[in-house]
Amino acid sequence: MSAKLVIATALLGAALAPGIAGAADIGAGQAIYNMHCAACHGVRGESVIPDAPNFARGDRLMQPDMGLMMTIKAGKSTMPSFNGILRDQQILDVVAYLRTLRR
Fold first, then answer.
1. How does the average pLDDT of the chain come out, rounded?
2. How many CA atoms lie within 13 A of 32 on its CB side?
3. Global pTM exceeds 0.70
4. Of 10, 96, 98, 100, which sees the most CB atoms within 10 A?
């Protein structure tokens, strides 16, 4: 296997692994969450509308950061798409913050 292929494979694995939001800004993620998400998911991650994931219980948080980012970008059920509203880095900041809500 070539060195370039080994490096590319390692980078892809790191990008898809849970926890890549470690370099994200949790404080910025909290501010974005409070502005765009708290009305449905609750200030502390305890859902306030039916069928919204309860992040305090860990709902949906077992998936990789990229999976969460794609759901936020695309929207799901009654949740609107944030594609074009939030940049990828902002979404990763929110994902990092979501992971702090689990109790």
1. 85
2. 22
3. yes
4. 98
